Amino acid sequence: MFSYLLIFVILVSTTFSDFETDLQRIKEEYTCYPNCTFNYTEINSETAKLFPSSCYSICGLITINENTDVSFATLEKLFHRMYTLKGGLRIENTTLRSFSFLQLHGFLSFFCFPFGTRIVNNTELVDAEALENIVHVSNTSHECKMEILDNSKLDASRLCESQFHNSVQNIEVLDNGKDCGCSSGKITPRNLPDFKNCIVLFDGLVLTNMSYNSNLKSLSKIANIRGNVEIAYTNFKDLSFLKSLSKIRGNTFENLETVILDIHDNPKMKRLGLDSVSVDTLEQDWVPTMNLENLHPDFCITYQEAVSLSYVRFKNLEAKFCETEWKTDMKSCKFKSLRELESDCIIIYGNVLISSGDEEYVEKLEDTVYIFGSLTIQNSELENIRFLKMLGWIYFLHETLPVIHITNNKDLKKVSLPSIVY
After folding, report:
1. Do 93 and 30 fall into the same domain?
2. Contact assessment for residue 387 and residue 362, using Cβ atoms and an 8 Å cutoff
3. Are 42 and 68 within 8 A, CB to CB?
4. How large is the average pLDDT for residues 21-49?
5. DSSP string, 315-348
6. What is the residue-averaged pLDDT of the chain?
7. Which of 165, 180, 195 is the endpoint of a domain?
8. Is the pTM of this model over 0.85?
9. Is 93 exposed, middle or buried (0-12, 13-18, 19+ CB in 10 A)?
10. Which has the higher per-residue pLDDT, 20 or 7?
């Protein structure tokens, strides 16, 4: 009997020691006030008396489980002031039908590093709306883990599309009443068919050392990838098997050299095949980096792809424009010379040159918004370039030559492009 008691005491002591270590990590990560920190391993009828229910912002590893012997109304009273949670959230093995007590004010800001969210085996849980309205705020150098598992009555099908989970990449939603999203894990030619119904893909996408096969079409429904993407050492001719892909959201981990979309060493790839994809990062102020390197010598991107990738920084850009024009109702013109150019062109294809003798034609550029090529103004008698007041975007696929070159215009007093997007 003594030996059993000793083992129990040792186990409890170890568990409490682990909790103390976890709580200390939270306190080191955030500003936590002692009177607004929950210092206990779980919420029950005893620890509820010590919960910091008067605080708007609470630190702690909040655990609600089979030992939580308080009513739903009591939980509402405990959390009724809380707008912000810092640390971790675990709700496991309960018979709760809803978690609405967590966001009585409409939503909850959850600073989820280091312990994330774990919602597991809540047999009566049916209401996912409260989960949709938890705003997960990740540490920029670490990803939060979010697990929603084995909740047999929960319809979690909308959860992956929730605007508040845009920052969550490391998410696992499995074995609920209805699930959402797929974890990419390691994709192989053999398991490709497992992804045929996936719309959201978590943990990024890596396709390397792979030959094209018809099972790649199983990825055709994927519209949203959370995580970084690498496609390399394949014989793919293009990426049209990802025809529904519209958004990639990666993580730089505060390192500008991190490539979000890395396409390299695919010697047969002539086209990208992603007309509508946009690329961004978890970090709102960071420009995403893309790499196009060591592809087929004739590799080209369409004008539409260039527009979709307007806000991307390239590590390498080994590409040219495809000869097919942008499918749009906006007036498009090919540039041969300013004298020959039509008026009212919103889109111009080609390198725009304004030189001596072109001054009388510059009004033709007053409506131009897009130039697919470079802009050179040289040896002119222009005094200003107000005629370019609408110019917003210049796309030039050359890594060493200047996009804009203005030189030897002796009367030019002011240079301003008020609409240009950098």
Report:
1. yes
2. yes
3. yes
4. 94
5. EEE--EE-SSPP--SS-EEE-S-TTTPPSS-SEE
6. 88
7. 180
8. no
9. middle
10. 20
